[in-house]
Amino acid sequence: MKTNLLGYPRIGSKRELKKSSEAYWKHEISLENHLKNAAKIRQDNWVYQHEHGIDLIPSNDFSLYDQVLDLTLTLGCIPERYTDIKLKENPLDLYYAMARGIQKDGFDITAMEMTKWFDTNYHYIVPEFRKNQAFELLNLKAVNEFKEALDLGIKTKPVLIGPVTFLLLGKETEPNFHRIDLLENLLPVYFKLVEKLIDAGAEYIQFDEPCLTTDLSIKEQEAITKTYTKLAETFPDLKIILANYFDCYGENLKTVLKLPVHALHLDLIRCPLQLDDILNADEFNKKTILSLGVIDGRNIWKNDFEQSLKYIKKATTILGKDKVWIGSSCSLLHSPIDLNLEQKLPTDIKQWLAFAKQKVEEIVSLNSIVTHPNSEENIAALKANKQTILNKSTSKLIHNDAVKNRVSKLTPKDSSRQSIFKQRQSQQKSILNLPLFPTTTIGSFPQTKAVRSWRSKFKKGEILQTEYDDLIENEIKETIRFQESIGLDVLVHGEFERNDMVEYFGEQLNGFAFTNFGWVQSYGSRCVKPPIIFGDVSREHPMTVNWTAYAQSLTDIPVKGMLTGPVTILQWSFVRNDQPRATTCKQIALAIRDEVLDLESAGVKVIQIDEPAIREGLPLRKEDWQAYLNWAITSFKISSCGVADSTQIHTHMCYAEFNDIIDSVAALDADVITIETSRSNMELLDAFVDYKYPNEIGPGVYDIHSPRIPSSEEIEGLLEKACNLLPIEHIWVNPDCGLKTRDWPETKVALTHLVNTAKKLREKFQIEA
Ligand SMILES: Nc1nc2c(c(=O)[nH]1)N[C@@H](CNc1ccc(C(=O)N[C@@H](CCC(=O)N[C@@H](CCC(=O)N[C@@H](CCC(=O)O)C(=O)O)C(=O)O)C(=O)O)cc1)CN2
Ligand SMILES: [Zn+2]
How is the chain split into domains, by residue range? Predict the structure, then answer.
């Protein structure tokens, strides 16, 4: 049996890549040093896996920004607006310009769109395809990294995103064609890359086709068949590993089982039943190796060896040991790196966990247990594992009867507002007294180095709670004054007290644990530290009321309370694997409901409950959607519906297309929704327009993911589009998302443009009226 790892985290255990990238962007370090730092991370990863006994070690799983963008550039698929920078000396300039936009040296070019990688909190850069898109082999990153590992004496397994998934992840920028039709153009170039890898000595290549977890059309299934049939014909000696993860092969299984591949990878965490389906399928060619993804790449719980061994034995009984591999369910990109760095996690909880480094050990351990079941060491390892799993399932830390009781007593009334939107709207109008095109922001203001350093000092005990609170209060005060000075209509306190919109709440809720170094890449250099939900969730005390009330005490203009919604808290945490997500979500919803009501009692008139992750939580297969949407919508409403009609509930969503779930978005019945629309030039608004979305809506007019400042003309253009599409009395004016990743100077200018444009439009429409 071989051990097979699909991918490894690339940020470094202390976020070395983040630090290096940001220093490079600020011209604080040279290109050479930046690349050296990156190479060190890659090489450490290979060496670690090699020393611990992984047989199929991935390469090209490293990326300076995003693996989809890497392939886009490799295949020369460069949008026209970047062609001028294409020829510049430093190819990384082009790469980073595509990822982040560029506004310097006479260039002013927007970034490519970014969206969620399947159902994860990782974001990829969306490839752009023209009708007759040509491809050319522009760079050899995959080959170079293979050679780099070879120089260390490690023969790796290059990982490539498969051609079909690559096309499906992109978008058409011209009408009248479907991107899957580009396969003809793509394959010859893609095969050239494969050839170069083989020439360099690659024996195995892993082709990632996670599109196989989605509902594929006949045409798309044919594209899979064609690609892999041709690939096997062209390279008869290549050992093709076809990898699918995050769900079942489902309806695509029949297609896949006929493919002439060397090994087929299954995610047995997300879809355990498919093992039987495959082993029993007539079409299954028993010469194909099955790579069993038994180690969870998406969560942090220690593996249940007994369970994994059942799968492995089932497969080896039928196929023999040489036809079965043991591996991670998906790339470990979504997992934190090293549990051993955690000094503050309660030991009871720590013993239940495994991060990437520990997962590597688990894979190797399982292999050893199967190969040498009678060795003393393995008997002991199995016994210790059993003990931990048992100890967790019976732990008193996990269960809280009061919480379970409260969830069981929920009724439909708890998730319904008192009156319909129209009635609420008129009450809110008279209380809030807002102008046409009210302006607001999404919540966070710049999380500067200074703000983060106060928190870091406070956590280390270098400053007192009172000093920390004073610093935050002062930041809130200045932010309120700034918002007043430019004339925003609904203010926010700025979220300076929060390390992250999910972790901050996790730190205050019962049932959550958090780490010091459990970083996971979200996009580019940005990382998150998802909290760990280990037990029943409840709220100990108000979490945001003091800061919001303080902000409101400084001004007569309404300040919007700011909370993260239950679905997003669930989705961006590591979740329990011992109860359904729906149950955990409702527990969180009740905690947020209590917070909403406390804010209302404190006099807060507008409360935003962010749900940016509601779309990404959607199962990958349509047949599973409704069940999810039912509990997700109910959970949001449990948290939002306790208030009086006169309290205005906002929600916010970003990074997603809502077309296919727009009825569910409407069912949330928030009085106002703000969404991200600027990078797509208001395209994302179409769903709301087609649906005749009944409540108020703030389409984003300022792309906050890039340091680029939008001009007033640009904002006006976007708003005019919105005015042509929506009833003008429903339109709010706001950025795409929070401003935490921006710096103050650009924020100030951009928001001034935004408010002035709203004022201008207001005058225009009032004159017309
Ligand atoms: N969970 C989550 N998912 C999300 C989002 C989000 O906001 N949260 N937004 C969307 C986009 N994704 C994003 C993900 C991360 C960040 C982000 O800004 N992350 C920060 C880290 C935020 C954080 O946890 N900060 C901590 C720790 C900060 C830190 O680095 N401290 C230094 C010390 C600081 C100093 O002394 O200067 C250290 O530990 O070394 C804090 O503020 O307390 C980063 O990568 O830079 C933004 C967007 C979608 N998914
Ligand atoms: Zn957002």
Answer: 2-65+114-394, 429-768
